[in-house]
Amino acid sequence: MKLLKQYLLILAVLIAGLLLSACSDPKLKPLSSGATIVAFGDSLTEGVGASRSASYPSQLAQITGLNVINAGISGETTDRGLARFEDVLEQHNPELVILLEGGNDILRNHSQIQTKQNLANMIDIANQRNVQVLLIGVPEKNLFSAVADLYDELAEEYQLAYMRGELSDLLKTSKYKSDQIHLNAQGYRLLAEQIAETLEAEGALE
Q1: Could you give the number of structural domains in the chain?
Q2: Structural domain of residue 112, as residue ranges?
Q3: H, E, C per residue of the chain
Q4: Taking 80 as the threshold, does the pLDDT of residue 166 lie above it?
Q5: pLDDT, tens digit, for every residue of 71-100?
Q6: How far apart are CA 187 and CA 102, in angstroms?
Q7: What pTM was estimated for this model as a whole?
Q8: Residue 116 falls within a domain, yes or no?
Q9: Distance, CA of 66 to CA of 53 (rounded, Å)
Q10: Which one, of 198, 117, 118, lies nearest residue 163 by Cα?
């Protein structure tokens, strides 16, 4: 009986280790030295609240040395984003797309079911074109605190590289904001740094 208990304990430890290893496996492939990244989204991508050069895509380009395309359009909802998404990928042929979209849907009380479907369709398009995806979670409307569940669900269903709470934390901190829903230059800098750290942790950057 004692040997059986020891065996079961060892087996449990091994299984736990395997599960932990699987969960921590990088979700992205290394980007080439000349890779293009498309930053796709709304005003938080465009850089409202700071100069264009202080937007997170511009600052991410400075940090990584890669070509980062700012494909953000202020006020855009996911249905409009979906309508142009494939054309943007066709135009720039990126290895990676950073998807930060859906805030305007949330602010305007759009159906989260439809918002999720629009984002899922974008992810499907990216997958069909062999473009890797980094998803950034957008907070709920109530003081922009908790991340909307749909982002957690998408990240799990598609096994995406995912930044869950970073944007939410920045939007909770007044010194990083230009208004209630936009970052300032310092906030965008921190977001760019966090994105670069995530890309490194997930295997895209060395």
Answers
A1: 1
A2: 30-201
A3: CHHHHHHHHHHHHHHHHHHHHHHHCCCCCCCCCCCEEEEEECHHHHCCCCCHHHCHHHHHHHHHCCEEEEEECCCCCHHHHHHHHHHHHHHHCCCEEEEECCHHHHHCCCCHHHHHHHHHHHHHHHHHCCCEEEEECCECCCCCCCECHHHHHHHHHHCCEEECCHHHHHHCCHHHECCCCCECHHHHHHHHHHHHHHHHHCCCCC
A4: yes
A5: 999 999 999 999 999 999 999 999 999 999
A6: 19
A7: 0.87
A8: yes
A9: 15
A10: 198
How far is Cα 95 from Cα 133, in angstroms, rounded to an integer? Answer: 9
Locus of tokens 């950034």: 136
Q: Which two tokens stand for residue 94?
A: 């990126």
Residue 105 counted as domain residue: yes
CATH number at residue 180: 3.40.50.1110
The reply to whether 129 falls in a domain is yes
Contacts of 206 (CB under 8 A, 6+ apart): 30, 200
- What are the structure tokens assigned to 64, written together? 């990584």
In a domain, 21, yes or no: no
Measured CA distances, 187 to 34, 110, 162, 168 (Å): 27, 27, 19, 11
Other residues' Cβ atoms within 10 Å of the Cβ of residue 48: 18
Tokens of 147: 């991340």
For residue 35, what are its two tokens? 């890779």
